[in-house]
User: Fold this.
Amino acid sequence: MADVKVWNTVNSGSQQQFMLRNCEVTNWEGGSWNMVFVGSTGVPESNCSDYTNVGSTPVVVEKAYLAVDDETESFKLMKPRVEKNKVGNTPGFDNADEIDFSDIYVANENDSAAKINSKLEEGLHLILQPGNYQLDDTIKVTKENTVVFGMGLVTLISTTGKACLEVADVDGVRVSGILF
Assistant:
């Protein structure tokens, strides 16, 4: 689990491997061995055999997500900021920059790589709807701070042997939710 708050006891039962990152739990029970806790509260301390507890996450950035603006009832794409030495979850999801949908291209599996690339070249962020994208060319992310967000089950498939996605040497690009 990651970036979660649980207001009760988490019981992993006899689970042999488990990882918690930046979670806040009231209490932790169970586990056979190889329980790893990073930047989490309410969890056991490290011991020699079962638990490894790392006090904070040195550098982390959560994946982008969709939200609804309560006032306008419109969708927005949220881009979480980089955090350092993080302990616990993100309360109130207040650590993200909003991206308006006027700055986003929403693609579907019938779009070509050329069409998607033209939208990215315009400086738009990219949301890929669920589907199998049969690509005859590479999707190229060349602008800094671009978000490429796979919504649902997104699969990029090369029909020519070329890479499905390339990110240029630019800062701040986020890619998530995609199978290659």
The longest helix spans residues 113-121. The mean pLDDT is 93. DSSP finds one helix and 17 strands in the chain. The CA atoms of residues 3 and 89 lie 4 Å apart.
